[in-house]
């Protein structure tokens, strides 16, 4: 049958469609009632769809754009992708992406895993949205930066560990030290060394991606301008946990790298599952870089950034 149905065929297709989709009758039952073969019933149902008599709409009321999530996942070869459909307001984006990440984390983390967490506003929103966690160890992935009104990595890890019922591996130390020698000395402190030794056991890590620009990377905002310029001159477009990457996703080493208490590039690549959280179109370059570099298996993001990532991929 063609897409344009003659009037008698349209009436018959509509009758078959009503019986099948609204009344729940099987094709065999419809065929018996109308005196035709089930193959003709199947052809009429197909004609009803192609001609527009029947329109099938999948409505996702979870706040997640399922179609965009699947397209972005396929475009970058991700294991999982969740795109949140929400207004472009920074606080709301973080809350919605954090809540979606919390739901996803409950599907990913299970018995035998070790969960690694840093501090980031979106990661903090994720932990606040978690109703529970399985009994797994939680490891602090980086040192702390004191920011008015914000939690520290210790707070985030403690909150997550309270949900697991398992003692956390954490330490009190700055994220960024004055120089490389001070960082080396700090790493030798027993509490720091003990917690950082647990990083090798992490199987699931959650990270937040930061663009190397004002207001979009906490590290960027706490270092002086000459250091910012040095990192940019090295080709870095952004970072995750202080691991810098260029536009193609290759790791970038800078003088700042040696001054930080955080994971190494190799340690960031090691877990079986790295879940990246990213919000806002300002993070297009850094998010694309981490995807191209194969650093993450799972991405949770907002609709606006997802659309830009698809355009950049030509998808």
Automatic annotation (TrEMBL):
<dbReference type="Pfam" id="PF04198">
    <property type="entry name" value="Sugar-bind"/>
</dbReference>
<keyword id="KW-0805">Transcription regulation</keyword>
<keyword id="KW-0804">Transcription</keyword>
<dbReference type="GO" id="GO:0030246">
    <property type="term" value="F:carbohydrate binding"/>
</dbReference>
<keyword id="KW-0238">DNA-binding</keyword>
<dbReference type="InterPro" id="IPR036388">
    <property type="entry name" value="WH-like_DNA-bd_sf"/>
</dbReference>
<protein>
    <submittedName>
        <fullName>DNA-binding transcriptional regulator LsrR (DeoR family)</fullName>
    </submittedName>
</protein>
<feature type="domain" description="Sugar-binding">
    <location>
        <begin position="65"/>
        <end position="311"/>
    </location>
</feature>
<dbReference type="InterPro" id="IPR007324">
    <property type="entry name" value="Sugar-bd_dom_put"/>
</dbReference>
<comment type="similarity">
    <text>Belongs to the SorC transcriptional regulatory family.</text>
</comment>
<dbReference type="GO" id="GO:0003677">
    <property type="term" value="F:DNA binding"/>
</dbReference>
<dbReference type="InterPro" id="IPR037171">
    <property type="entry name" value="NagB/RpiA_transferase-like"/>
</dbReference>
<dbReference type="InterPro" id="IPR051054">
    <property type="entry name" value="SorC_transcr_regulators"/>
</dbReference>
């Amino acid at each position: 049958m063609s897409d344009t149905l003659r009037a008698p065929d349209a009436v018959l297709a509509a009758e078959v469609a009503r019986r099948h989709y609204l009344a729940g009758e099987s094709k065999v039952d419809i065929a018996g009632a109308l005196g035709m073969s089930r193959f003709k019933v199947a052809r009429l149902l197909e004609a009803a769809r192609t001609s527009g008599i029947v329109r099938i709409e999948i409505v996702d009321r979870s706040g997640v754009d399922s179609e965009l999530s699947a397209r972005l996942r396929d475009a970058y070869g991700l294991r999982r992708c969740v795109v949140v459909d929400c207004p472009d307001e920074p606080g709301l984006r973080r809350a919605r992406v954090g809540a979606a990440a919390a739901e996803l984390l409950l599907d990913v983390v299970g018995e035998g895993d070790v969960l690694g967490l840093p501090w980031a506003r979106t990661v903090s929103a994720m932990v606040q949205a978690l109703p529970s966690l399985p009994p797994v160890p939680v490891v602090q992935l980086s040192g702390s930066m004191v920011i008015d009104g914000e939690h520290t990595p210790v707070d985030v890890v403690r909150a997550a560990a309270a949900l697991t019922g398992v003692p956390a591996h954490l330490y009190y130390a700055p994220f960024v030290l004055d120089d490389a020698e001070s960082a080396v000395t700090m790493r030798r402190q027993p509490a720091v060394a003990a917690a950082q030794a647990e990083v090798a056991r992490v199987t699931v890590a959650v990270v937040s991606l930061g663009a190397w620009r004002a207001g979009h990377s906490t590290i960027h905002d706490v270092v002086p301008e000459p250091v910012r310029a040095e990192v940019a001159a090295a080709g870095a477009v952004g970072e995750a946990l202080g691991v810098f990457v260029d536009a193609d996703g290759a790791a970038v080493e800078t003088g700042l790298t040696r001054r930080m208490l955080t994971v190494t590039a190799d340690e960031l690549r090691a877990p079986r599952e790295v879940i990246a959280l990213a919000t806002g179109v300002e993070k297009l370059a850094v998010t694309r870089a981490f995807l191209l570099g194969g650093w993450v298996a799972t991405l949770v993001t907002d609709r606006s950034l997802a659309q830009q990532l698809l355009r950049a991929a030509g998808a």
